[in-house]
Amino acid sequence: MAESIRKMQEQWEHEYLSPYAAFSDASLGRDEEEEPCDIRTCYQRDRDRIIHSKAFRRLNGKTQVFLAPQGDHYRTRLTHTLEVSQIARTISKSLRLNEDLTEAIALGHDLGHTPFGHAGERALNEIASAGFKHHEQSVRVVELLEQKNGKTMNLTKEVRDGILNHQTSGMPMTLEGKVVRFSDKIAYINHDIDDAIRGQILTEESIPAVFADVLGHTVRDRLNTIIHDIISVSEGTDDVRMSPKVEEAVTGLRSFMFASVYTNPVAKGQESKAEELIKQLFRFYTTHSDMLPEEYLDQIKYGDGKCYLEDHLYSDSELISLRTERAVCDYIAGMTDRYAVMTYQDLMIPNSWNVL
Q1: Which of 121, 127, 149, 252 is least surrounded, with the fewest CB atoms within 10 Å of its CB?
Q2: Is the whole-model pTM more than 0.90?
Q3: How far apart are the C-alpha atoms of 276 and 187, rounded to whole Å?
Q4: How far apart are CA 340 and CA 269, in angstroms?
């Protein structure tokens, strides 16, 4: 009886969803083959694994835009993720796409984000020889770093592809992945405006009329306009897109936010300190790798099987050095803001000077 529950859901998808949707029973599968769940489709199973992961819970302690904001209502990386998921599910359901796949991608898209938001990402990208990109790190989390009883999350290829390609320049293989890519941008532009207004960096009146007249003069109106536009333009097609008029306004509003908020000293005045903190942690652990947790020491010694470094020819010493940097990036990227600060204080500041 239970097995028929999953099969009925898969059959329902073929009867109701768009022919352009990603059907659960046609998934490209997992790296490690598993017995199917008796009641959940493969994408529902992936969603549940993400929600129950430690990496997902840590998102609540990671910065979105404002570092250590004075107030309880500013977004964290977790609330951003939930807003992306809500927007993406609305669009996906309206287009009769696979809402479960969409939700799994949305919930997992930032699992690899660093502490201190993009400041932490910039710091690791600048100091690590191989660079650092949070969308690639998110895939490392689900393919390697997040383990339970020695097993990785082993997500489907479609979910991992959507996570990897959620950034603006990405090219997801599914329409559900494209929905998340748009939803990420829609969410952060609008909730960052809301947070900036709360932080008295912006007012609604300061948003250029050329964008506000097209998209709306409140966060609610802008979300409504953009979401409706994507649905109306994309419905019944094999693509997910905005109309040229709305896309131009969104792109312009994003540029305005970079100039007015993302580089604003009020919102970003502490970022140079956060970046230096991350770099100091990186320098410390690359020269004191023996102080890393055991799983990272094993990664340095044996490799991880998921790192492109293994496919190149290096001397033994070069390979160990690069593996060490990779392991240190993995460790630091998994920290919350608070844990990164506490670790820095513990390693760098004499106890008698530590005021916390």
Answers
A1: 149
A2: yes
A3: 29
A4: 18
